[in-house]
Fold:
Amino acid sequence: MTALATGPTLDAAERVALHDHYRRVRRHSDHLASPLSAEDQVVQSMADVSPTKWHRAHTTWFFETFLLTPNVERYAPFDPAFAYLFNSYYEAVGPRHPRPQRGLLSRPSVAEIGRYRAHVDDAMHDLIDECSTDAAALVVLGLHHEQQHQELLLMDIKHVLHCNPTDPVYAVDPHTPGLTQPVRFVDVHGGNVDIGHDGPEFAFDNEGPRHVTHVEAMRIADRLVCAREWLEFIADDGYRRPELWLSDGWHAVQEQGWEAPLYWRNDGADGWSIFTLGGRRALDPNEPVVHVSHYEADAYARWRDARLPTEFEWEHAAACLPSGALHEVDDVAWQWTSSAYLPYPRFRPAPGAVGEYNGKFMSGQMTLRGGAYETSPGHTRVTYRNFFPPASRWMFGGVRLAKDVE
Structure:
């Protein structure tokens, strides 16, 4: 066996820590899939959704493709066809099965994917035993990549189950009552501020380089927009007033028939209900709004005579304000910003296929900050940049307002 040769070998304590990290992340993926039947894990409800089975296989493919196959002399791929079936978008690696057709892959079976994961896990633990620091960094990237897919798995299966008219339950609803206090806008000082990641801890490449950005003094809401406030927007014909919407957003409203956030339903005399991972229940007027597009967030902010913060304002506020000044920062819903997802100054993608990880998507997308209840433990930080197209609603996206200082 030979692992990546560059860099010193990990010491004993580092190897133990990496083994433990690997086990925890991989087991969590299996835990998330455990409430689902084999039939659940095959369904693809729209082109943006991937089947649970595919997520479990693709995250395994990452370790096989970028660590085991090129670096372990005697490693035998579990099935050579998987290189084509479970590549996502890495052009440098080779061709791949079309994304909108992932739900047509009834085979390999869920059970075979489980065996694939076990096969790769055994080889990965052998690799970690001889791991260099450079190889370890790639292992850690693969684990954070898997944590991203853990949240995607929940996003996607929620959309799949919502398509079933019986409103099936994935797991017990973790809902807790929302905050009841009126929203308060907190003053944030302006100036030249440092933005982006800088330090030894893990961060994705798109979180750097750290650089100086000027932000104006502003005010930011201390909590997310709640359902009661959004119902006021609906009652005031917010989805029927073109003057509130960006042009592309108004087109999306008309084309897709939006009348409320995704998963909300007006049940007439019974009031509003919401579909959750725990099935359908009554809408709590105090719960934060989730599953809205950037277009909806922007229209709502305009209706409230406010705006969305830029991603730099969001990061500056989250970093500089005292603890407790902002609620629901990274544990409820990702928060749309007004910032397009673009590279920071001096950003350069890494060489090779791994460099395709984030940089190639820096066009036509908007940035979200924070984190969601469904985000995997330990996966958020103040510099994290999430991104989606502005019309997307199936991700766990919410709204935090901002205002200019008059």
Notes: The chain has two domains: 12-162, 185-404.
